[in-house]
């Protein structure tokens, strides 16, 4: 099995609208503080979420599912995002939206399967022979290009590495020069090079190069101890999906036709059930030998009512597998038809047999004062100053329409305040923004009005 080439391709969280949320905000007694970590109110749901976090950390919760149910804008997605932050970067968290399963290239069940495997992590421990140290020199040696082209090519690269105990000069293959460039290694960085694969990893900047400025993006690490050439325990966090991809054999031969085929077909379709079985076997062996540890993470399926009956049946099966993440669903629907079984109505559009497996957490609507605090936090993250009376007014608007609309009004109101030359957003700016941009209720009223001549 290839572990070397594994590149983590975890999905980016859509953070923009939740960037003020930094966690669930519980105190040491596991009680949700009314305002903490960017979170306001919704205490019961946050405490429930924290119990889930604990269960995931204790690995007691694999193969179960939770549903966050509540009206739009009550913070379901925000809670899921906070859960992922509480779990930290080492536990996989795979967010998806129900409608993502509808692809023209991959079967719905295949998308689900893939995301399940993205949500299961494996921590692999390996002892490797490495050269480690602070880089003292990088000098690529050039020769005339032997293939007859213009320019020069690199014949080898000389690297100096320094540790607390000594220094060593290495003469390395040009391919390593490429990985040095890729990792953006420069003199003064601490790196290690695996001796049998030649892969380069940049650990950080040596702390003798640290400056007194606080605004530094770099991570400073101490000068490595011991010899330059040594055995080092390398810990890698990968997901089962990463392993599937790394081990999927590139298809086709040398001819043009199959190369075209490769271009047109994304690699995804090559992961077969058989391959997954093989990967699982090797993973189990690693675990038995004590070289790897399984870390079930979270698969978050937002807008779960978008899934159809086939997906739900598949989920039932996937949840019963021995290796399974915890699945968190979110839905804002009441009773609605189950997709693909049009006549059948069900709460949240979820079939009863799956409902039966769920722990359900409700998110309640916010009060006006809670909305005011949320808006205040949000304004701060967006670097906007809002006058006190304007904030109260916006909270009022939020209570009448939705939290989301109120949050969204902040930005245009800020722009208008700028144009009008106010240093803070005033009631006037707010009203102007609300006049320009309608909320959903107001706009649907206009559309429904028979006098407005829409084609219905
Ligand atoms: N309790 C809360 N504290 C702070 N911000 C919140 C809270 N609840 C919701 N928000 C913010 O309000 C907006 C809408 O919430 P969201 O989680 O997207 O709602 P839902 O997924 O339930 O429809 C988001 O920007 C979210 O970050
Ligand atoms: Mg949502």
Q: According to CATH, what is the class of the largest domain?
A: Mainly Beta
**CATH architecture classification of the largest domain:** Beta Barrel
Number of strands: 17
Bound molecules: adenosine-5'-diphosphate, magnesium ion
CATH superfamily of the largest domain: RuvBL1 DNA/RNA binding domain
Shape descriptor reads: globular
Task: Tell me the structural class.
Answer: alpha/beta
Instruction: Estimate the strand proportion.
Output: 25-35%
Helical percentage: 25-40%
Task: Report the radius of gyration as a whole number of Å.
Answer: 27 Å
| Poorly predicted runs of 5 or more residues | 252-262, 265-269
The overall number of domains is: 3
What count of helical segments does DSSP give?
14
**Overall average pLDDT:** 83
Main sheet: strands, sense, barrel: 8 strands, mixed
- What CATH calls the topology of the largest domain is OB fold (Dihydrolipoamide Acetyltransferase, E2P)
Terminal Cα span: 59 Å
Name the descriptors.
456 residues; alpha/beta; Rossmann fold; OB fold (Dihydrolipoamide Acetyltransferase, E2P); Helicase, Ruva Protein, domain 3; 3 domains; binds adenosine-5'-diphosphate; binds magnesium ion; nucleus
